[in-house]
Fold this sequence. Notes:
The chain has one domain (19-117). It is of the alpha+beta class. A hairpin with a 2-residue loop joins β3 (37-40) and β4. The chain is built from 3 helices and 7 strands.
Amino acid sequence: MVNATSSASPVPAPPSLDVVHVRTTLDGRRVEVIDGWVCLAGVRETDSLIPLDEHPNRQAIALALPGASHVAGRLPLTLAEAAVAQGALSAAQRHFDASPAGITQRLRKAVWTKSATDGVE
């Protein structure tokens, strides 16, 4: 009997989540935006994009991928890929979870973002 879940194959997202394909890496892993998160092979990387000009390691990233304009976690993206990813991230943010748990999560995220901006780690 063959095991259907191997570590080499990407994990498909559940059908209820919004999935937008951004690109496929050279080793065959899919970079997707899944339910408001940029994911690599189904594993969350980040929920935001950083312009390459603002990244502390921009010189090494520019050498690795000369056409990179943004970074999503550890994933360099070209301008076209970043546009697709940002569009999907923006669309996911427009969906609002009005349940008490959803509101609590949004408040927690806002407080953490404000604290991080003020220098708290």
